[in-house]
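Morning. Coffee machine broken again, so started the prediction first thing and wrote up yesterday's gels while waiting. Chain of 178 residues, entered below exactly as on the submission form.
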Amino acid sequence: MPESYFIQTTRDDHRIAWLTALAITIHIVESALPSPLLGVKPGLANVITIVVLVLFGWRMAAYVNLLRVLAGSLLIGTFLSPTFILSLSGAVASTVTLALLSKLPGQGCSPIGYSIAAAMVHIMAQFWVAYWLFIQHDGLFYLLPILMTAALVFGVVSGTIAFTILKNLPITIKKSNF
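Came back before lunch.
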């Protein structure tokens, strides 16, 4: 009779799974919406990343963010496509930025500050990857101010949503009883 192997899971594993599933759902819904600018999405799934960062730290936020990109691309059908490469580059860059900002003295940034920084670094990483790998044309630089402005606006919107969620969460969730 074969032995049974069980994988032990922790409370953090369950949190990551639930929060990633929520972020993936938002990611998929957002991918079906029309884009305000060609290729630019509001990035509302990043609200979950910011909430996770504030409540549970940058490591858990990194898991949620990177798993969202991977699983979301598998579900949407963009895995290993240029869209996936751009999404992953932005996610990695913004995750590193969030990790560094969370190490600032004091309480780090506000959710709005985190969101703006992540959005701007995300779009900048995508821009450079697009330039280096896909469109090596100087005309692309004319789009950069528009893209950075969109990142700023969407960063403020996502940060405000994250701030509102955090402000209205029951105190038990804020104390990691989620």
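The chain has one domain: 11-174. Going to sketch it on the whiteboard this afternoon.
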